Amino acid sequence: MIITIGRLEAYLYNGTFNQIMEREDCVFCKIVSGKVPSARLYEDESVIAILDINPISD
């Protein structure tokens, strides 16, 4: 199963986010944990804003 932003929001809403953070196929979880490099534009205790690796427009 591919983890999307929508699914992450659902996991956050129903309280199972910690379970999803343990999955190996969750690229967003890897970005948050620092296992995958990212270009972070902004970060605080509840938000991380990153650049898209394949933006639709320049």
TrEMBL record:
Specify the HIT domain's residue ranges: 27-58
What biological processes does GO assign it? Answer: purine ribonucleotide metabolic process; sulfur compound metabolic process
- State one molecular function term (GO): adenylylsulfatase activity
InterPro entries attached here? Answer: Histidine_triad_HIT, HIT-like, HIT-like_sf
Could you identify this protein by its name? Answer: Histidine triad family protein
Query: What organism does this protein naturally occur in?
Result: mine drainage metagenome
**Source lineage:** unclassified sequences, metagenomes, ecological metagenomes
